[in-house]
Amino acid sequence: MKHTHDYYAQIFMLLMTGKRGYYRPEVMDALMANTEAVALVDEFTERFQSHVAESSSSDTAEAAREDGVSVPAQMPLPATTMPEMPAPEMVTPEPITPEPITLTALEEASSITPQAVAPERDAAEPVEKTVVVPEFSQPSEPSQSSERYEASLESSVSSHEISEPIDAQETTLSPGDVPAPSVVPKEPSVSEMTRNIPNGRSGQSYQHDLGALLLAASSTVTDITLVDDGGTGLVIEDHQLIGELVAAGNFQLVVTGCADDGTCLARWTLRLAIIANPRDLWKTLPSDAQALYAKADCDVARETTPAGWQMFMASQRGRSHAHRGGQRDDHGVIQTTSTGWNILAVADGAGSCVLSRQGSLLASTRTVEGLAAYLEADEGTLEGVVLEYFEQQSTLKTPPKAWIDALYHSVFTSLHQGYKAICEEAQASNQPVKAFSTTLLLALHKPSPQGDLVITFGIGDGGIAVLETGRAATLMNHVDAGAHAGQTRFLDGAVFSNAEQDFYPRIRIQRFTALEALVLATDGITDPMFESDNDLQMGESWWRMFDDLAPSLDGPHATGALAEDSAADAVSGPVDDPLVRYLDFFTPGHHDDRTLAVLRRPHVARNDAGRGGQS
Known about the structure:
Layout: H1 5-17, H2 25-32, H3 35-66, E1 80-81, H4 103-110, E2 130-131, H5 142-152, E3 191-196, E4 200-201, E5 205-209, H6 211-216, E6 223-228, E7 235-237, E8 240-244, E9 249-258, E10 264-275, E11 298-304, E12 310-316, H7 319-322, E13 330-336, E14 342-348, H8 356-377, H9 381-392, H10 401-428, E15 440-448, E16 451-459, E17 463-468, E18 472-475, H11 494-497, H12 499-502, E19 507-512, E20 515-521, H13 523-529, H14 539-554, H15 567-572, H16 578-583, E21 594-600, H17 606-609
Parallel strand pairs: 3-10, 4-10
Antiparallel strand pairs: 1-2, 5-8, 6-9, 7-8, 9-10, 11-12, 12-21, 13-14, 14-15, 15-16, 16-19, 17-18, 17-20, 20-21
Helix pairs in contact: 3-5, 8-10, 9-10
């Protein structure tokens, strides 16, 4: 192209609309790409400049005639249909030597009259305008000829001779006129910004105040609009970005700030990271019902004693096992006797031992079976000896022999039966005893006129607590916590071979006059519920746990019976039971099996439990 982009743009604009003005860049770019259209403009420019040069030669001829000098006349160009043409960039043409013509030809040319400029046409039609060379007539007098010649050139003066501004919308350009530079209508500038907003979590509600955007924007920005939620489902209400987050990932939302008249003045891209809910990352795969020592993924038991005491047991496979389709290692047992004793036991099989699920089952069930058999035959010996000891303990330096013998024949012998069952199973399966390693928490309860008698034994971690009126609690076991997380003590032969140092010190016996509940829990519950082992000594911590648990005890009870025609039920267990749902609470970093056993005073409503009231 021989001229500037704006030069051609104005030419094409005049051809399309008959006026100068703003043009759309995409339309102009398309025309610029048309080499034939550009060539026509260049051709017109050359012909127009040639016409100016010939007009200048005619001026010299007129002056010579007045002086009596004979100068060959030049014939003016014939009328040509061309668009009006601005020429901001004039390319100086090479001098053209005009050919001499006769006076007759000049007289014929002078008879051509200027034609009117074609009126504006519809914008959709191309516009053509007729540009003619001004009329030249044979001058009769030198003065009139000079005046006529000057008038004929008024429409073809150069750009430096124009003294008045040309209206870009209304003025029609004549050949030789130079259009003023095009003025593009100014649009309001839009401020573009990118911001990071606080992260969210899938499955949870989200709220973020966007008022800070208004404060940082221009004072004319009065409202914020969400134009693209980026797939998050969030909305804006009262300048608050709110909603429920579902999918996890990285998202971009687009928000605009507008003035009162609706003009967009600011545009923000908000980057939001939605973090996956940790609970959603866990899989729940069924355990193998054909595996050795397979058991249901959860278990529930309920029992009401003849005296009206309520006993509950619930055990659930932890997420760490469910994620890979493993077995439940915990086990729990509750039982009451006709003599008024209530027995509760929970056992936590060692996760690092492949057959610990069977170890926990044998240790808890065989121990409870042995105790129940002893207490059914006991004619009050254990209860009488223990109560007598409480009456005389202020004067006794050591427990009497009768007290030791009673514990030996009841608790010690029953525990040994549980451990012996593990040893026999290990030998039968050709496995080491360590493969069946398990903890064990055991509690015996007997109401009496002197108060509630509680005897406990504990080896390993977890906790046994008696909850009393006034939101007090007493920890009834020694917690075997190792030097590192997950380390503990398991039921082994040393407990029986060295009873004086390893069995009797683990026995706790107390009498309570305001007992409200007795709770046994494996570490799958105590670890997330209590921040440290010291918190196990705090009564309020136990009561908070019991307050959360009580609705599941008072709620509608599932039967716990397995559907005979559903193998899935036999594998999963009573998953819809309220106690199982309670054990499904989520605490990051704590995904072990969970088992608890609870004894509760008769007819204690949840609202009265903290005050020790009875109905």
